[in-house]
Amino acid sequence: MYSISLSMDQHNSKFQIAVVEDHKALREIFVDNLHSQGYLVFGASSAEDLDEFYVSQPVHLLILDINLPGEDGISIAKRYRKANPNISVIMLTVKATANDRIAGYDAGADIYLPKPVSADELGAAVGSIARRVLKYASDQGYPSLSFSKRIITKDLTKVSLSEIEAKLLKGLINAPHLSLEYWQLLELIHREVTDKDKATLGVYIHRLCKKLEQVGMPNPAIRSLWKRGYQLTETISQSD
Length: 240
Prior knowledge:
The protein has helices at 24-36, 47-54, 73-83, 98-106, 119-140, 163-174, 182-188, 195-214; strands spanning 3-5, 16-20, 40-44, 61-65, 88-93, 111-114, 144-146, 151-154, 157-160, 179-181, 222-225, 229-232, 237-238. The termini are far apart. The protein is elongated and about 55 Å long. The protein folds into 2 domains: 3-140, 3-Layer(aba) Sandwich (Rossmann fold), CATH 3.40.50; 144-238, Winged helix-like DNA-binding domain superfamily/Winged helix DNA-binding domain (Arc Repressor Mutant, subunit A, Orthogonal Bundle), CATH 1.10.10. Strands 1-3-2-4-5-6 form a 6-stranded mixed sheet, sandwiched between helices. Strands 9-8-7-13 form a 4-stranded mixed sheet, with helices on one face. It has a 3-stranded antiparallel sheet with strand order 10-12-11. Strand 8 and strand 9 form a beta hairpin. With 240 residues, it is α/β, with parallel strands linked by helices. It is built from 8 helices and 13 strands.
């Protein structure tokens, strides 16, 4: 099972971490230590727990034990890197041969740490990645929504939104984990929870994604949460 730790630190709390380690005591040490440094952290014992959480919670960094029950860390890293090339990965393993390290890096590891690793050493590695990722996000800046003007802006690019698109986008921006269920989104645009209205919602979301692409957001900027709703994949600020 997974556990979640939250922090009030306004800087590191923008950086979200998943620790996947089947050794419960070790996992709790890592999670508690990273939490104390201000990160948003959750701990998982397997790929299944990670997948369940990731559906509704974006993650910047995976900390993976290679030897896990079921799907191993190498396979998880490859799968998540394919789905999200920007995700960072730290590999943990008792294996320390050159071939093992090469396999870890080939799977997408940014840093490879042989066990036993101290919580402080892991924290230092996480800090190095977090500073780089957060600086990049700061340098890039975020698109900005003016709800009153129904315009989304990034640098010199401005894109007009329809009233419905603006309502949907504002709702997702303000939602926990940037995600809303079907009924919540349909309520925003005064629609019923029917198959027909869900299909109509899908059309609005598709059109909104196309407009978000115009201000440099990834495709899709809003991803479908299977049988649940939709989630905004990147941060958007609001100017009013």
